[in-house]
Specification:
The chain is mostly helical. The protein contains seven helices and no strands.
């Protein structure tokens, strides 16, 4: 849903971009940093330091916010940059979910790792069905919307990390299970939108 309302964050994005545009880094380098900080996030998740996991999660997600803002502010936007940004986003999310498989979590009907796998499938499919709809000519404009787009998932990951910090692992698993269901429902919503296209 939030992917359809990026204009809500335009002012914040511009303000942040003005700060980072002063540094001698290109938008693509900021994108690369999101993966570097994502790997640091993974390390701290594996050793069970969820405070630092959360810090590097925020920094990694923030780099994704920065790269596009800096590109637009400096008139450096490009198709290659947008492509690299999308690829990096998928890697960062996959790194986060992989890290969750290293955390000791209780079962909730299924094993925690089964829910994490289902969440990974849903997260990746929401992006894939969007790209496939355009690639196959079903849609001219980018397919957006649905219950759980990337922005909603990342906000939910922040809540999930708060549960882990508090030692509320049962709540963490419930959050993972809910996200798994909602992300796959979002993929189905987008598939339905694509198939209802007039082309």
């Amino acid at each position: 849903m939030l992917d359809q309302h990026r204009n809500w964050f335009k002012g914040l994005e511009t303000a942040i971009a003005k700060i980072f545009a002063e540094l001698p880094l290109t938008p693509n380098q900021y994108t690369a940093l999101s993966i570097v900080f994502g790997i640091a996030m993974l390390y701290f998740m594996v050793i069970g330091n969820f405070w630092l996991t959360s810090l590097f999660f925020i920094i990694s997600a923030g780099m994704d916010f920065v790269d596009g803002g800096v590109a637009r502010l400096k008139n450096l936007s490009s198709s290659k940059g947008a492509y690299w940004d999308t690829v990096a986003d998928r890697y960062v999310e996959a790194i986060f979910l992989f890290g969750l498989t290293m955390v000791e979590l209780p079962e909730l009907y299924l094993s925690a790792n089964a829910w994490i796998f289902l969440l990974l499938v849903g997260a990746m499919m929401t992006t894939y069905v969007k790209a496939a709809a355009k690639e196959k000519g079903l849609r001219d404009a980018e397919l957006k919307g649905g219950l759980m787009s990337r922005a909603e998932r990342f906000i939910s990951y922040g809540v999930l990390l708060a549960f882990l910090i508090g030692g509320l692992n049962q709540w963490a698993v419930m959050t993972i299970a809910l996200l798994a269901v909602l992300s796959n429902l979002t993929a189905i919503q987008r598939i339905s939108m694509a198939l209802r296209s007039k082309k």
